[in-house]
Amino acid sequence: DQQVKQNSPSLSVQEGRISILNCDYTNSMFDYFLWYKKYPAEGPTFLISISSIKDKNEDGRFTVFLNKSAKHLSLHIVPSQPGDSAVYFCAASGSNDMRFGAGTRLTVKP
Amino acid sequence: EAGVAQSPRYKIIEKRQSVAFWCNPISGHATLYWYQQILGQGPKLLIQFQNNGVVDDSQLPKDRFSAERLKGVDSTLKIQPAKLEDSAVYLCASTERGGTGNEKLFFGSGTQLSVL
Q1: By the CB < 8 Å criterion, does B43 face chain A?
Q2: What is the pLDDT of residues B10-49, one digit of tens each?
Q3: CA separation for the pair A84, A106 (Å, rounded)
Q4: Is B91 on the interface with A (CB under 8 A)?
Q5: Which of A96, A97, A104 is the best residue to mutate to test the B interface, defined by the most B CB atoms within 10 Å of its own CB?
Q6: Pairwise CA distance, residues B37 & A94, whole Å
Q7: Distance from CA of A19 to the nearest CA of B (A)
Q8: Secondary structure class of B86 (helix, strand, coil)
Q9: What angle is formed at CA B49 by the lines to CA B48 and CA B54, rounded to 5 degrees?
Q10: Helices (DSSP H) in chain A: which residue ranges?
Q11: Are strands B5-7 and B106-107 parallel, antiparallel or unpaired?
Q12: Closest in A34, A43, A100 to B104, CB measured
């Protein structure tokens, strides 16, 4: 039952460049989407979210884009920094049901 | 603000043994969640409490897993008996209100369980 999919297990980018992490979902009842960031030996921490009534939300270097017709969202990090190296989880929720993707490991090289 | 506290951080047991995990959510948070995260997968919800009542335990393997939230604050998750496939990180999370899904979760650092 993979209602939320992150098809890229890993991504490597150069410091200063853009990182784009992608996420697809199948359940059209999801109406709120979140990105979490996880460092080793720590729990996930909230990064940014977007409601289904919007198509873009920006917070500093982080921007989330939502394409409801394609059931696709993406996280853009510009510029990428070595400290951004972590596992990023996409999550989707609706009616008190939150589902997570399997995560994408981002490595930002100096 | 103190975060979500979990203990122990690591636990190694043999199959068929029992184990218990403890969680103290952020003060005042009404909703508490237990998630299981198997290596290479995203967190999977096991059980959700609102105050001390169970909201959702549809994915909890009730033949071996049990959980309680006494007085609507701390919570314990127990596995008895453990199987090899229970090896995972068990994450506790809390939210202030819960009930709508449109709310970010605050996670603890998790308990890494290895069943040998």
Answers
A1: yes
A2: 999 999 999 999 999 999 999 999 999 999 899 999 999 9
A3: 7
A4: yes
A5: A96
A6: 21
A7: 20
A8: helix
A9: 90
A10: none
A11: unpaired
A12: A34
